Amino acid sequence: MNDTREKIIETAFVLLVKNGYNGVSIGDITGALDITRSLPYRYFESKRELLFEACRQYFFERFFPKDFDVKSATMEELLEVISENMERIIFGLSKSLGAEVSVFDYNLMYFDALRNEPRFKKFMRSKIRELRIVVDNALKSGELRTGIPAEFVERVFGDIWSRCEYVQDTVSNKKSVARMLDDIWTFYNLIKR
After folding, report:
1. Would you state the pLDDT for residue 53?
2. Is 106 helix (H, G, I), strand (E, B) or coil?
3. Nearest alpha carbon to residue 73 among 125, 130, 128, 151
4. Is 32 exposed, middle or buried (0-12, 13-18, 19+ CB in 10 A)?
5. Contact predicate 50/27, CB 8 Å
6. What is the pLDDT at residue 164?
7. What are phi and psi of 14, to 5 degrees?
8. What pLDDT was estimated at residue 129?
9. Positive or negative, the Cα torsion across 33, 37, 38, 40?
10. What averages of pLDDT result for each successive group of 10 residues across the chain (193 residues)?
């Protein structure tokens, strides 16, 4: 993929996390990259397209690699991929920004994108369906305890990933990410066979 396009997406997302969905302009993005105002339009039809792509990538595509086969994956394999990618994304964004990207702000941006971009909500639902495939397979294979509703498992993992309550009180991102990952694995260990 084009490095310039990726850098524009990354910068747009970092600015989204810092300033909110409606607080980012093309001028902010181009100013941060020291590029011409017209360059993003080589890759995106509009600011809206750019922001959608940034949210799509950093909230879902980077967690679920394109080559990850949800139809054959175990729940444990999915959680391993998500755990690795969560740390890589949060700490990678912090490194590129030169300052810590707050997990709290990252999670708030997720809700802001859902509120402001109907296509993002639709895309999110497609990713929830992928999670459902893995949960259903885990229940059928006996990886998870019987009698646990798939919808419940799906909702709890979604709640853990998007949790904002304790991350605002946690001193560092490292502790926030560690706590979320601990909650994910604790829940998995409670429901697995």
Report:
1. 94
2. helix
3. 130
4. middle
5. no
6. 54
7. -60, -45
8. 87
9. positive
10. 88 90 94 95 95 90 82 93 84 74 81 89 86 92 90 82 57 76 88 90
144 beta partners: 192
17 and 8 Cβ atoms separated by less than 8 Å: no
In this predicted structure, what is the pLDDT of residue 18?
87
Q: How many CB atoms lie within 10 A of CB 88?
A: 12
Cα distance between residue 91 and residue 76, in whole Å: 23
Q: Is 145 left (phi over 0), alpha (psi -120 to 50) or beta?
A: beta
How far apart (Å, rounded) are the C-alpha atoms in residues 33 and 27?
A: 10
Q: What is the C-alpha to C-alpha distance for residues 154 and 132, in angstroms, rounded to an integer?
A: 7
Reduced to 3 states (helix: H, G, I; strand: E, B; else coil), residue 144 is strand
Q: Given this model, what pLDDT does residue 173 score?
A: 72
Which amino acid would we find at residue 162? Answer: S
Report the b/e string of 104-118 with b at 16+ CB within 10 A.
bbbbbbbebbbebbe
Residue that the structure tokens 């798939």 belong to: 150
Query: What's 192's DSSP letter?
Result: B
Question: What is the per-residue pLDDT for 49?
Answer: 95
- What span, in angstroms and rounded, lies between the C-alpha atoms of 123 and 120? 5
What does the DSSP 8-state code read for residue 23?
G
What does DSSP assign to residue 102? Answer: P
3-class SS at 152? Answer: helix
pLDDT value of residue 61:
81
Residues β-bridged to residue 192? 144
